[in-house]
Amino acid sequence: MASDDTVELNYRHQLAVARHAIQSTLAISCKPIVSTKFSEESAIFLHLVSQVQPGIAVIWVDTGYNTRATQSFASEITERLDINLHTFEPLDHTIIMPPALDDPEHAAFSREVKVEPFQRALKTLRADAWLSSIRRYQSTHRKSQPMFQTLSDGMLKTSPLLDWTAETMTRYRLENQLPLGAPCFDPTKGEAFRECGLHLDRSTA
């Protein structure tokens, strides 16, 4: 078999698995949500999910530290894909220089600007399933994650793109003529390939 055939089979398999994961989650949930941060490749997952379930609720935690480019990209994708967007912001937060990773204040800062707004979003929308776009190659923590998991609070979390490669992401984006966003600044991460807290079990995040 030609190598091109193998590449095509792997791509189609990854697409089918992702769609099946989305469909399976939707079939057993009443209030599913999608999370996004409108980073460079966010349009890919938002497009994929919207093809399966138009109008699904999308949560965006706007930390207050996003650039104008990210804000513009969020507006563009929301309009283009007709996204049912729900934006949540930190409560009573003053913009400051984000604490360094070794600063004792960093954990509290992360909870204030990202984790608490996300938890509030889930409660407000009464979500019972969370569709996330994480991939294994993004961090050490994500390498060992299952595609389906029940979090400590009973939330079903599904990661349909978990086994997608960077090449799969690029091909899907190009085939569907989706734009790339600007680099997204996350004040809670401090460095690449580090978890921000949302993708750790929220009982300890």
From TrEMBL:
Residues 32-180 form the Phosphoadenosine phosphosulphate reductase domain. GO terms for biological process: sulfate assimilation, phosphoadenylyl sulfate reduction by phosphoadenylyl-sulfate reductase (thioredoxin). This is Phosphoadenosine phosphosulfate reductase. The keyword Oxidoreductase applies. Pfam families: PAPS_reduct (PF01507). Gene3D superfamilies: HUPs. Pathway: Sulfur metabolism; hydrogen sulfide biosynthesis; sulfite from sulfate. InterPro entries: PAPS_reduct_dom, Rossmann-like_a/b/a_fold. Belongs to the PAPS reductase family. CysH subfamily. One of its GO terms (cellular component) is cytoplasm. Coiled coil: none annotated. Its EC number is 1.8.4.8. Keywords: Oxidoreductase. One of its GO terms (molecular function) is phosphoadenylyl-sulfate reductase (thioredoxin) activity. The keyword Oxidoreductase applies. It comes from Granulosicoccus antarcticus IMCC3135.
